[in-house]
Amino acid sequence: MCLELAKGMVIFMNKNKIVIGQGAAAVDIVIQCQALPEEDGFGRIYKEQITSGGSGANVLVTIAQLGAPAALVAKLGEDEFGRQFRQELMADGVSTQYLLVKPGGATMHTYVFVAEHGKRSILVNSGDSFHTLAPEEVDDRILDDADVLYTDGCPAGVSVKLAKAAKARNIPVFVQIECPPSFMSPTSYSSGQINEVLSYADIICCGRDVYRELATADDYLFSLKDTYDKYKPAFGVICTAGEEGAIWHSRQDTLHCAAYAINPVDTTGAGDSFCGGMIYSFFLHNAGKKDSLAFASACAAIKCLSHGPRLRVSEAMVKDFMNKHVLTCNSIKHPRKKGKE
Question: Which strand ranges, in their side-by-side order, compose the sheet holding 18-22?
Fold first, then answer.
């Protein structure tokens, strides 16, 4: 397949190549509870589960389960969480050849509280390993056999190095910023670094809160457009907006894809599943924007129907879900005047 990145610049995709992903690698302690914790309050825990997560890893698991080769670049600690993460990533079909280990280090892990209707809150223990991955530890020749580079921008030094190297090779760069930049540790990246990563992106995909912060505007639709105007990614910017669906803004148009009508049990990892489905559909299978939005939205919806942060379904299962559910994707106009939502 081929995709045009810019005027006069065409890249050709080889289906036998691989998606290289660099990003969060964590173990999630998932706590299913009566309600999300409140100050000085009490609640019941129904079930606890320790399972692998991390946005970057979740995206690649989605891609691998759908049927495409994928490999993760990250650093783990030399602990039980790190060993569990590696084993489960391998079991999910993602290559671990680029995983590094910090001797004596602690692996990043999270506490995910999940209440009724899939509502959740997350507490993060960053550990002392993930954020120490340094650019000099990653050889950009790992991109020589890559079809797509995915990065969540952290650690930023590595993201900048790989994104820059991918652009030099005409490899499309998909950037997902999972958390608002203000949440991330100052040791993870500076505003200058995240701006540089985004400047190399061919698609930027974030949630509403991230766009509001990137553009310092209250209305996420305006923030979405402002982000596009600032970075000009070749294929545009995408906002995953939960129950409001997804919006894809580019130079050509702005598309809105409604969310599938489901009863969610756990929304953890839905955005990651969306990104994995988008990369698989748009970049690896050359689907159009509307079809890619529908496919990625189906991946997110299916993830919400089960507990845990990862989507483990085949392409055939996603298409079967799509055949059984009605979804609309339409062009929309941006509002002309700014205002609060």
Answer: 99-102, 70-77, 18-22, 146-151, 173-177, 203-207, 237-240, 246-249, 254-257, 329-331
Residue type (1 letter), 31: I
Tell me the backbone φ, ψ of residue 158, rounded to 5 degrees.
Answer: -70, -40
How far separated are the first and last CA of the chain, in Å rounded? 40
Which phi and psi angles does 38 have, rounded to 5°?
-120, 155
Helix or strand or coil: residue 58?
helix
Name the CATH architecture for the domain at 14-24+54-104+132-331: 3-Layer(aba) Sandwich (3.40)
Give burial (CB, 10 Å; 0-12/13-18/19+) of 177.
buried
Report pLDDT digits (tens) over 171-209: 999 999 988 877 775 656 677 888 999 999 999 999 999
Q: How far is CA 154 from CA 40, 106, 163, 244, in A?
A: 34, 17, 12, 27
